[in-house]
Structure formats: C-alpha cells, structure tokens
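Run YdcF family protein through structure prediction, thanks.
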Amino acid sequence: MSPGTEFVVQALVALFGVLAVVGALVWSLRKDPRSLRNGVLVILVVHYLLGFIAAVTAWSSVLQTVDGLVLLAVGGLVALGLSLLPLLLVLDGVLMLRRESRSLANALSLLGGLSMICLPLVLVALLRHENAVTGSLAAGLLTAQVCAGLLFLVFAVHTALYARIARRARAHAVIVLGAGLVEGQVPPLLAGRLRRAVTAVEERKAQAEAIVIVPSGGQGRDEPFAEGAAMGEWLRRHGVDADHVLVEDQARTTQENLRYSARLLAEHGVQEPYLIVTSNYHAPRAAMLARRLGIDAQAIGCPTALYYWPSAYLREFVAVLVEHRLLVVISGIAVVGMMALTWSSLTAG
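Sure, done. The structure for YdcF family protein is below.
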C-alpha cells in the first residue's frame, strides 16, 4: 500500500469514528438530554475528533508543526489551571466555612483542594519504600484519582451541555423547588428561583396561552408555614395572576417536590412537559431525578453566589455518583485490578 493510500485509509477510518460517535450523541440527546451518557459521548466525540486531526496533520510537516504548537498551548493552559485549582479550592473552602454553617457538605471544596495537594506527596512517600505493598497502594491511589477525574469530567461536560439545551425546553407549567424560609420570609436564594420562574414563563409565552407556576415546599420544623404558601404569596405580590399559581405545600424533599407537583398539575389538567426551576448547581440532578420518576420535565437554574458554587457543585457530583452506583463499582474494580497487577509484577520472580 502506497503512503498516499495509507493516509487516505487512516483519515477515512478516523472520520468514520467521528461520524459514528456524533450520530450516537445526536440520538442520545434526542432520546433524553438528561442522561449522563451524553457527557461520555461528548468526550468520545472530542477523542475521535483529535484522532482525525492527528491523522490529517500527519500528512504535512507544516500541519504537524501547527498542531504541535496548538496542543502545547492548550496543554500549558490546562496544566496551569490544574496547578492553581487546588489552591483556589482551599481558599474557597475556607471562605465557605466562614460564611456558611460548618458542615461536611460545605467543606467539600476545602477537602477536594487538600486531597489534590496531599495525594502527590503521599504517592512519593509510598514509592520511596520500593516494596510490593506500598507500590500496590500507590497504583491503587493513582487509579482512583484517574477514575474520579474522568467521572468528574463526564459530569462537568454533561452539566454544561445540558444547561444550554434545557434553556430552550418547552413547558406547560413551571415547578419551583423550595429552598427554605428565613424567619418566615422568602430569602434571596429562593427569590432568585422565583424570579427565574417568572422569566421562564415570559420566555415561553408564545408556546402556550397560560403557563402555570407551581411553588413547591412543605413546612419545616423552624418555619411558621409552608414554603409553597410563602412562595405563592411572593409570586402574587410580584404580578403573577393568582389563577396561574398552584401551591404545593406538602413536599419535604426534592423527590416529593417533583412527585407532588406533577400530581397536582395532572389533577388540574395541565399536561407534560414541565420545567423545573432550582439553583444552577442543582438543575442537572433535579432533571435526572425527574427522569427516574418518569416525569417529562427539564430543569434550569438561577445563579448562586460564586463562593457557594464549588462546594455545592461537588455535593451534586457526589450525589450523582451515589445514584449511579454502577460507575462507582466499575471504578472500584479498576482500582482493585490495578493493585493486583502491580502486586503481581512486583512479587514475580
């Protein structure tokens, strides 16, 4: 086979891989944009696209040089970002604990930053001993870090893509998830969700004659009345027609928010699809939960304070992993398998 023919074959094979994965991504997005598999497919599209570019640029030394410079620049930016990320997470975690309650959930960005700083030191310490036990532990820790990084990348890509898709979703009703009252009043975080719901209705006026808003939330132990009632009053005070507000005042969890709201809308003859409004970090998981409950609803989010976002986003990532236990099991198998291979190679002979 001549070099020219070999180049054409390699380029066509790489192009076929790109088109096949792009087709799978399009199918998956049409089937359900809420699925986490979309993040996996986007990463595969990028992987195959880079392979295609490498196959094409291999034919020309000039293109190879340009490709190398671009990769060097991108790699440098990624390396710089990863080197600064642990420090930024630690600083954000300290700020989070100062401004919010001291809890494990609020300390996630701090713990994440510290783990990224400490893990390389632990690996160096283990490898210095040069024995099968420490070598196997080092291999397991490194594999666990790689698996966690890949899973987080899938989650981040999925949430970024989903946020763009959900903004254009059709809806016959908007469900607003509660976030707790402060001294019986709607706090800024919850007010932001309600304002986003009103904006979402305005954006969809051409889709339906009247879009109902469902403020959802029951009464907490430290609340004088149900969140849903306070949210409904807020909406009416801000110009929303009372006939277009259906208060759900029994829910205590996100799952109950969605289930009870969907039931209430069905009882009033409002058919799917629905739109869920929550905070931006929570929207993807709320959409996944609606998918699991069989509710045809997409979710959009309102902005939150910048310092609050990293820990909240990490909390959502952990929650998604708990809900996708198979991914955790596969990662665990990879860790154990790498430890076993390392032990076998270090003890052989």
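Residues 1-59 form one domain.
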